[in-house]
Amino acid sequence: MNKTIKLTITAVAACFAALAFAADGAKSIRGIDVAAPDPVADMKSYVGKRPGTQAPVVRTFSTQPPVIPHAVENFDEINLEGNQCLDCHGAANYEKKKAPKIGDSHFVDREGKKHEEAAAGRHNCVACHVPQVDAPPLVENAFKGDEPAKKAAAKKN
Ligand code: HEC
Ligand code: HEC
Question: Does ligand 2 have an atom closer than 6 angstroms to the CB of 2?
Fold first, then answer.
């Protein structure tokens, strides 16, 4: 059998399987019918008080970008002219502002060159670091990050 025929058969089989699944009234993991459009979630405002008053949120794995524990609403948009995140977290100001310094990795650009401040590729902080909302999990979730486990293991030894 050539590749195209094989692919066609697979695609047709997948369609039938999907139809049978839907006809069965199968529920999605969110508890609504699979064919029903996803309801738009409520807009939630970010939680967290002003920087300097919040405890860091435990990381779930070592290379996770830590989430932003503090409020972000009153900051200006990150753009070419300015980045208020760096006004507190950058190498020049973090001590004065009593803020955690940006990660060591942030000073190195993709060519491996080291910079005095965050490399341009890190400028849009919120592409990786996210503020928090108070939202109940959509589905029950027993995931436990490895960081608390590692800490507990380290204590035992
Ligand atoms: C006014 C100073 C200030 C500004 C502006 C600020 N931060 Fe912070 N940030 C802090 C301080 C201080 C902490 C330590 C937690 C606390 O005390 O609230 C922190 C904590 C964090 C952490 C957690 C670090 C960890 O190890 O868990 C992240 C991530 C972070 N900020 C990202 C940002 C981003 C992204 C922005 C811009 C949208 C920003 N911050 C703007 C002061 C600031
Ligand atoms: C491409 C994704 C990415 C971008 C963009 C980014 N970060 Fe990070 N950040 C990470 C990751 C991953 C870590 C944890 C590992 C590390 O330090 O590299 C981290 C760690 C941090 C930490 C904690 C450092 C520590 O030593 O515990 C702070 C504070 C931080 N980032 C702030 C910022 C700020 C401010 C910006 C914007 C100027 C920014 N980051 C941009 C991914 C990113």
Answer: no
Geometric angle at alpha carbon 125, from 123 and 130, rounded to 5°: 170
Q: How many A from CA of 141 to the centre of ligand 2? A: 26
Q: What is the pLDDT of residue 155?
A: 66
Only one residue has tokens 């009593």, namely 98
Instruction: Report the separation in Å between the CA atom of 49 and the middle of ligand 1, taken as the mean of its atom positions.
Output: 11
Q: Name the closest ligand to CA 77.
A: 1
Cβ of 102 less than 6 Å from ligand 1: no
- Virtual torsion, Cα 38, 42, 43, 45, nearest 10 deg: -130
pLDDT 10s digits, 19-58: 555 555 666 777 778 888 877 777 888 889 999 999 988 8
